[in-house]
Amino acid sequence: MATGSEQSLDPFSPPDPGRARAHRVYASLMRIAERHAATGAQRSRQVHPDVLGPHEAVRLVSFLAGGAAQREEDEPEVDVADITAALTLVPLVRAEMDQLEAGLLLMARGRGMTWQEIAFGLGLGTSQAARQRYERLSGRLAAETGSEADTGTS
Fold first, then answer.
1. Which residues contact 12 (CB under 8 A, 6 or more apart)?
2. pTM for the full model?
């Protein structure tokens, strides 16, 4: 069986979709970083200077608890209450990501992208899968908005 570089040169081996997706993810991060986050000011414009956002809080607790980030000397260790607090924020983070994805899908369509192009960007196999994903997101967001309006809670 051909390995990574051998496989890419072998015209008789099918491409590895996971490898291709990983390359696109890296290229995507580098493109956006170079074009829209090259300076500290550009990177921080979506972050509130004084208030930690839900996604930042969840990531911070996860990194500290998992050892991917180091505590400062006077900083307390992550405890069960911190993890519970982060877990409490996960539904809010998920809802925010759903809203961001739905908005990006609408912007993509508004800029003339086909469902097939959108499916490629999302790593989905078909245009139908991309449309269905948008419909599920829209339905979920509408249900969340409707339930909040009905109960008067957020």
1. none
2. 0.73
